């Protein structure tokens, strides 16, 4: 069906999910012929999506030529505004999050937790929001893909270039 869509010469193509090598090949070819292609690929982070395409037998030079960016996102629960309470987390929580204990005027990091109410059905949460990370491909990232660098190397390079990780995005929402 993706091949028949290409015959109609669309400007933008949305592929529900890339699950196999054939779909990946067609999506890459569409991108190389000037179509803007959006798709989903289930991975743990943005860098892993690039290495997953390599695992699907897509040539590395095709990936670096056709992909312009990768977004990884997660939906996370939002603390209920009606019943949230401020609390000071313990040192263990702060060290896991790699947070220094100096975020507020009195030197204590303040976080919130939902205690539960009728509005949130006693869960302490109401609604969801997204956290995300974005890798924009440039020459250096493209060269890493061509050399089949690991997702960790790609991620570390993207972080050095200013990428905010999923964790960073989540911490921004919390603080």
UniProtKB/TrEMBL annotation:
The keyword ATP-binding applies. InterPro entries: P-loop_NTPase, T2SS/T4SS_dom. The keyword ATP-binding applies. One of its GO terms (cellular component) is plasma membrane. Residues 6-20 form the Bacterial type II secretion system protein E domain. PROSITE patterns: T2SP_E. One of its GO terms (molecular function) is ATP binding. Pfam families: T2SSE. Keywords: ATP-binding, Nucleotide-binding. This is Bacterial type II secretion system protein E domain-containing protein. It comes from marine sediment metagenome.
């Amino acid at each position: 069906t993706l091949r028949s869509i290409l015959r109609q010469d669309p400007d933008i193509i949305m592929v529900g999910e890339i699950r196999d090598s054939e779909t990946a090949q067609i999506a890459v070819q569409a991108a190389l012929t000037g179509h803007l292609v959006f798709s989903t690929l289930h991975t743990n982070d943005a860098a892993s999506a690039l290495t997953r395409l390599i695992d699907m037998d897509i040539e590395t030079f095709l990936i670096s030529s056709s992909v312009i960016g990768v977004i990884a996102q997660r939906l996370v629960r939002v603390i209920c505004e009606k019943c949230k309470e401020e609390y000071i987390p313990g040192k263990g929580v702060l060290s896991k999050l790699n947070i220094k204990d100096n975020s507020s005027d009195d030197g204590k990091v303040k976080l919130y937790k939902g205690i539960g109410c009728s509005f949130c059905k006693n869960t302490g949460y109401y609604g969801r929001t997204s956290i995300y990370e974005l890798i924009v491909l440039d020459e250096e990232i493209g060269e890493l893909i061509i050399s089949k660098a690991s997702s960790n190397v790609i991620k570390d390079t993207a972080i050095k270039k200013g990428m905010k990780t999923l964790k960073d995005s989540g911490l921004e929402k919390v603080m």
